[in-house]
Amino acid sequence: MNPRFSHIRLTASDIDGTLLQGGRTEISERLFTQVRALKGQGIRFCAASGRQHGSLRKLFRPVEKEICYICENGAVVFSPEGEVLSRTPMEREAALRLSHRILEVPQFEVLISGAETSYLIPKSPDYVDHIRYFVGNDVTLIEKPEDIEEDILKVSAYCPDGALQYQESWRKEWPQFAVALGGEKWLDCGTASKRDGILGLCKALDIPPEAVLAFGDNYNDIPMLEAVGMPVAMEGGPEAVKGLFSCRAAWPEEFMEKTLGLGAEFVRK
Q1: pLDDT band of 180, cuts 50, 70, 90
Q2: How many whole angstroms separate alpha carbon 225 and alpha carbon 238?
Q3: SS3 breakdown of the chain: % helix, strand, coil, rounded to 5?
Q4: Torsion angle of alpha carbons 145, 147, 149, 150, nearest 10°?
Q5: Distance separating alpha carbons of residues 115 and 77, to the nearest angstrom
Q6: Segment 119-125 long-range contacts (CB within 8 Å, at least 24 positions apart)
Q7: Which pTM was predicted?
Q8: What are the two backbone dihedrals, phi and then psi, of residue 123, each rounded to the nearest 5 degrees?
């Protein structure tokens, strides 16, 4: 192991654009092997994403009971056993107003996140199929936002014509929320950020943030990367994100092999 990384006790990684790049839809077997190898060294692994808990567990099925989950951009954190370790809901009335605002925009679709399901009010059946089968979320169809009885953790706008063009105007319109790009076509809005998620997990595991190695590629990863001791930005991410961090990598798997003693000979053991 590189001495510079000998203090690492937790590794966290974003998913889309970080572990999944270039059209990939499945996590590599190489990463699963590394998760088990890290566990043998006493280093925990966490998936940190804007995705839903159920979607992440499906992606990480071979190791789903060996890792932690930061879901919905940090709004809820789960243990390997499915226990909620931290939760940061949105203020309900504001979240409902935001949901209606998204529904008012003809080209937008809304996704309202509960702890274990995505609430949809679809304008097109293709949108439901996209969330259920491509994204992999558990879905609940409702008629209006007020039908939701549980805490609202995140409200997202699906923007088929691209989300970046709306980001600044929506930040001004909704200053009480963190508005971040969750991908090319997603605007994610919530009270929490991945910073809240990683700090909540560190507290639950009694691990100092300085002992965390984290990977991310996009704007919604910045709060997490800024909160940890060893942030790594993906080479394929936006220049504005990469410019904030001195340490970069093409793939998390390659970086961990070089720094955490996970070379080919070790991984095969």
Answers
A1: confident
A2: 14
A3: 40, 20, 40
A4: -30
A5: 9
A6: 119/145, 119/147, 119/148, 121/145
A7: 0.86
A8: -90, -20
